């Protein structure tokens, strides 16, 4: 792994930094409100017009065909500029890589350009009331009909579903098959007849999630991703991206670590000095780990079970960064501050994208070769 940037990489980073410095909005309302969702959609439309919304995608879909290293450099510049979280992240970071791997040419041409322009924002519809981390326990079903499928069931904790346009999720198409078999990956319209979306308030009272109820919702064959019955394999492709590379780029944690160091320099409380140092080192370590992953992928490797290591690390790092900042600031920061809002979001990190308990089991069994835990 060579950490030296060549002239092309430096030029790419400089161009991104210049554009972001000039165009990044000072502050947007929370994306978990109707007003904030619309404002973030408009911001990401501006990104798309300058071809910065999906830099690693092919040009025909709105990207710049940037390699993974350049994508990481863009992400570092994005968060260093103070740019907001991406409201379209479920689509561009989770569904899109799955479409590139398992989708048809027709699906890519139809779905990727409006996703890049933030004209179609996607919700993730994985979890069900009795199937969260144990995704294979889903009960929502789909039955074949003329020209497509009819979806029925309930999804819950669906990120962005309160205001999003479409969703992706798994449904059971063969009830007699074993748990991981007989599943199919569907794409569906959240405003289609038979769909009811019920927002779920988070700790801050804003609807970052929603329940989605489906009652015989028609989905055409064209919106099956992969082959019917092969949904588990397709879904694991999505999950690997969620845990390992694209959703939590290191630029986000580096920017937060820099803010933490700046905060300590104002405070210089020696009691918390070592925690600040450890958190900063953690952010740099995650960056190096990600660069190693990029090197592996560039040489033909795959994300694989190693993505669970990254998920464990970034979710605990995020908590450490925010808890250290809150302790530095004292009790008043726990009443209302950006650090408090960041900490509330970080609390969910060990849960979503597969709980950390599940990830530790994956690491133990698949990477360390330890005996399987009782099922």
UniProtKB/TrEMBL annotation:
<dbReference type="GO" id="GO:0050660">
    <property type="term" value="F:flavin adenine dinucleotide binding"/>
</dbReference>
<dbReference type="InterPro" id="IPR009075">
    <property type="entry name" value="AcylCo_DH/oxidase_C"/>
</dbReference>
<dbReference type="InterPro" id="IPR037069">
    <property type="entry name" value="AcylCoA_DH/ox_N_sf"/>
</dbReference>
<dbReference type="InterPro" id="IPR006091">
    <property type="entry name" value="Acyl-CoA_Oxase/DH_mid-dom"/>
</dbReference>
<dbReference type="InterPro" id="IPR013786">
    <property type="entry name" value="AcylCoA_DH/ox_N"/>
</dbReference>
<keyword id="KW-0285">Flavoprotein</keyword>
<feature type="domain" description="Acyl-CoA dehydrogenase/oxidase C-terminal">
    <location>
        <begin position="229"/>
        <end position="368"/>
    </location>
</feature>
<dbReference type="InterPro" id="IPR036250">
    <property type="entry name" value="AcylCo_DH-like_C"/>
</dbReference>
<dbReference type="InterPro" id="IPR052161">
    <property type="entry name" value="Mycobact_Acyl-CoA_DH"/>
</dbReference>
<feature type="domain" description="Acyl-CoA oxidase/dehydrogenase middle">
    <location>
        <begin position="123"/>
        <end position="215"/>
    </location>
</feature>
<dbReference type="Pfam" id="PF00441">
    <property type="entry name" value="Acyl-CoA_dh_1"/>
</dbReference>
<keyword id="KW-0274">FAD</keyword>
<dbReference type="GO" id="GO:0016627">
    <property type="term" value="F:oxidoreductase activity, acting on the CH-CH group of donors"/>
</dbReference>
<protein>
    <submittedName>
        <fullName>Alkylation response protein AidB-like acyl-CoA dehydrogenase</fullName>
    </submittedName>
</protein>
<keyword id="KW-0560">Oxidoreductase</keyword>
<dbReference type="GO" id="GO:0005886">
    <property type="term" value="C:plasma membrane"/>
</dbReference>
<dbReference type="Pfam" id="PF02771">
    <property type="entry name" value="Acyl-CoA_dh_N"/>
</dbReference>
<dbReference type="InterPro" id="IPR009100">
    <property type="entry name" value="AcylCoA_DH/oxidase_NM_dom_sf"/>
</dbReference>
<feature type="domain" description="Acyl-CoA dehydrogenase/oxidase N-terminal">
    <location>
        <begin position="7"/>
        <end position="119"/>
    </location>
</feature>
<dbReference type="Pfam" id="PF02770">
    <property type="entry name" value="Acyl-CoA_dh_M"/>
</dbReference>
<dbReference type="InterPro" id="IPR046373">
    <property type="entry name" value="Acyl-CoA_Oxase/DH_mid-dom_sf"/>
</dbReference>
<comment type="similarity">
    <text>Belongs to the acyl-CoA dehydrogenase family.</text>
</comment>
